[in-house]
Amino acid sequence: MRQCSVGGEALIEGVMMRNGNKIATAVRKSNGEIVVEITEHEPLAKRFFLFRLPVIRGAVNMIESMVIGMKALMDSAEKVDIEEEEESGFEKFLKKIFGDKLFQVMLYSSVVVALIFGICLFFLLPNWIAGWFGFDKSTTGGSILANLIEGLIRVIIFLMYVWLVSKNKEIKRVFEYHGAEHNAIYAYESMEKLTVENAIKHTTLHPRCGTTYLFVVIITSIILFSFVKWRSPLVNMALRLLLLPLVAGVAYEIFKLAAKTGFKPLRAISYPGLMLQKITTQPPDESQVEVALAALKAVVDD
User: Fold this and answer.
1) How many degrees, rounded to 5, is the angle at CA 170 between CA 166 and CA 172?
2) What is the rounded distance in angstroms from the CA atom of residue 137 to the CA atom of residue 126?
3) Mapping DSSP to helix (H, G, I), strand (E, B) and coil, where does residue 24 land?
4) What pLDDT is attached to residue 3?
5) What secondary structure letter does DSSP report for 208?
6) Distance between CA atoms of 123 and 297, rounded to whole angstroms?
């Protein structure tokens, strides 16, 4: 097996692949044409020594990946030839204010909204619900129990969210492209010729998938937050927000080690995330794998 750092993301009718400084998106238009776009991006970790340090690199990588992924997703929506509606008065107003910068404003606004939504749904809401339980949380044991209950609620909310969005027809298509992305990467790691026939035979479950990382983040948050004393709702929320970069950073180190090593305890932590990919990845058809391979070939030498 070839060791590589190629990563990707499913888009609307397409796939994005990243390798080193190269980013490639491949999108299939309504006429069947595959449009491939290649851009150069030097990761922040390469530009700044501080961002290469353990733990810090994980938090930085999470934000950077969100920005790059959101941009690729928005770009793919424009390329697919989705029937455009007439611009609303509000859209015209925004164009008048921001002009050529409107896309950048929408991009970063989308990232901020996604972050706020994720924090509220997976961190603040579980903490609020856990606060309903009437036992004494001022003691050490009570505080640990409250934090563990909060963590369990967080896992339940996350699983319910993933299951619900998977029922959407458009999201299911994205999940199929997610499976195609993994098929393509497996073929490359197996040092096989990058053909549809070679790629499609592989599993859609991959240990380096972002789904697994998100689950490791949740498990890490349960462990780290259990050491934090339970306080008032506002203080609890503030502490969790302050600790979120640490959680993301520690989870990143665990995630990377689990993907590289055969150490069973580390593999066990990432295993639930691997099983969750049975929802977030779906078996693709040959045309979807073809798109994933087009993106992959644009960022690798093979």
Assistant:
1) 40
2) 16
3) strand
4) 75
5) T
6) 39
The encoded tokens of residue 61 equal: 């990588």
163: burial class by Cβ within 10 Å (0-12, 13-18, 19+)? Answer: exposed
C-alpha–C-alpha distance, residues 234 and 236, integer Å? 5
Q: Mind listing the pLDDT tens digit for each residue in 257-288?
A: 887 776 677 778 888 889 999 999 999 999 99
Q: End-to-end CA distance of the chain: give it in Å, rounded.
A: 15
Under 8 Å between Cβ of 129 and 152 = no
What letter represents residue 211's amino acid? T
Angle at 91 between CA 89 and CA 94, to 5 degrees: 110
Taking a C-beta distance cutoff of 8 angstroms, is the pair 276, 211 a contact? yes
CA atoms within 13 A on the CB side of 214: 20
Q: What is the pLDDT of residues 82-113, one digit of tens each?
A: 555 555 565 565 566 766 665 566 666 777 88
> What are 172-184's pLDDT values in tens digits?
999 999 999 999 9
Beta-ladder partners of 27: 14, 35
Question: Taking every pair of C-alpha atoms in the chain, what is the biggest distance, in angstroms?
Answer: 64
**pTM (predicted TM-score):** 0.86
Supply φ then ψ for residue 70, to 5 degrees.
Answer: -65, -40
Domain boundaries, the chain: 7-81+99-297
β-partners of residue 39 are 23
3-state SS assignment for residue 168 = coil
**Amino acid present at 238:** A
